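Example for tutorial group B:
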């Protein structure tokens, strides 16, 4: 049997009216925020899905920003490279003119003067910086000047000219994530862009009986290769050739020296890691601890294969010496090699840009899809919410009117 006190009906009425007001408040909050889910308990399953979708959308947005940043960076890099190609075109025109044999020494010297100015422009383009002041072709050393030009006396010139351009950057290819687990290079090292020939180095030591003295690690073009104690020169060459570092190792058939050669025009980057002395023992790199790649070759080693700057310098010097035949031979050939390398890098850059643009479109579409899914989970159906609000308002008003009639009589009403 339930006990009924004087306040029983009043308390019940207040309880249910407060619940009704909470329902009204909930719908009003939903309408003001236009979100169906205000708290996790409103729909735990949908809230869980919405949290995952929002997290995924945030990652897609980050990939979008990364991809757009790479596109902007590569557009600037492409602009610098195209200007360099225009410089090479002009240098080539001068080489063709000089090779005709109809110009005298004075005319060739004038051409050499223009070639020297074009060489300076090439160095300037190679040292280009972006809007943040970061070097474009320096690898990871973006706060440094990647190409340092040295001047000296040159036969045939009455003033000092550029005699050497040294690369001081590194071979790091910075990467950024443009999709889940997908990374894209954001830069091209300068010694890959401004290079002309496959580089070769001939060691200065007979290696026929060489064996590794202790477990060692050597670095070839940035790829670490592990060598075991007792490895012969043939095992070393096999490991280098199987490392896919873009370098071919072989033994010179006459002197039994180790020969390392890049498989495409680029600069060799060789280094002993840790306590290793293998490359030093083979007469490839210098014994000095201060020597750093790419300028750490042994003074007794023979190095062949030059940069784009070497080709322009050689052409200029040949013109100053009045050697018409060499201008049209090695001089013109070197310029063609440098220009072909630059055009090849431009082609690869264009392919990456096309891929990035396609990826950016896909990311945009994916974000729209994810946002649509999330909208289905959390967004409010306004028509349904308005209907619900009107229903709750109507029932609440009816409840208030009923309560006013039921709760009106008191003891004072009977004392009149």
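The residue assignment follows.
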């Amino acid at each position: 049997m339930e006990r009924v006190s004087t306040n029983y009906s009043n308390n019940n009425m207040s309880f249910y009216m407060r619940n009704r007001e909470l329902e009204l408040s909930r719908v009003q909050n939903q309408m003001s925020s236009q979100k169906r889910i205000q708290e996790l308990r409103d729909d735990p399953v949908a809230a869980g899905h919405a949290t995952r979708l929002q997290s995924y959308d945030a990652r897609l947005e980050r990939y979008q920003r990364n991809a757009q940043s790479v596109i902007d960076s590569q557009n600037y890099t492409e602009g610098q490279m195209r200007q360099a190609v225009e410089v090479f075109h002009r240098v080539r025109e001068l080489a063709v003119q000089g090779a005709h044999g109809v110009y005298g020494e004075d005319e060739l010297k004038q051409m050499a003067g223009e070639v020297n100015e074009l060489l300076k422009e090439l160095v300037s383009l190679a040292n280009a910086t972006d809007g943040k002041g970061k070097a474009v072709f320096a690898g990871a050393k973006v706060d440094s000047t990647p190409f340092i030009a040295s001047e000296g006396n040159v036969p045939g010139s009455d003033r000092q000219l550029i005699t050497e351009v040294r690369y001081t950057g590194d071979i790091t290819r910075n990467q950024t994530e443009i999709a889940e687990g997908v990374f894209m290079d954001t830069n091209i090292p300068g010694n890959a862009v401004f290079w002309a020939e496959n580089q070769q180095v001939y060691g200065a030591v007979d290696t026929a009986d060489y064996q590794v003295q202790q477990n060692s690690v050597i670095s070839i073009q940035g790829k670490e290769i592990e060598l075991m104690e007792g490895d012969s020169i043939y095992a070393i060459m096999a490991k280098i050739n199987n490392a896919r570092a873009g370098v071919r190792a072989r033994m010179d058939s006459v002197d039994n020296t180790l020969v390392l050669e890049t498989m495409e025009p680029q600069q060799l980057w060789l280094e002993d890691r840790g306590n290793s002395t293998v490359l030093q023992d083979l007469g490839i790199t210098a014994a000095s601890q201060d020597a750093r790649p790419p300028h750490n070759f042994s003074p007794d080693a023979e190095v062949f294969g030059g940069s784009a700057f070497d080709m322009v310098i050689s052409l200029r010097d040949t013109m100053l010496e009045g050697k018409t035949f060499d201008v049209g031979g090695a001089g013109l050939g070197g310029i063609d090699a440098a220009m072909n390398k630059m055009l090849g890098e431009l082609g690869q850059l264009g392919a990456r840009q096309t891929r990035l643009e396609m990826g950016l479109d896909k990311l945009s579409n994916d974000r729209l899809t994810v946002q649509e899914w999330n909208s289905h989970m959390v967004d409010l159906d306004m028509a349904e919410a308005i209907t619900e609000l009107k229903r709750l308002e109507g029932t609440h008003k009816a409840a208030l009117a009923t309560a006013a009639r039921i709760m009106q009589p008191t003891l004072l009403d009977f004392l009149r």
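The chain has a mean pLDDT of 88. Compare this with the pattern of hydrophobic and polar residues in the output above.
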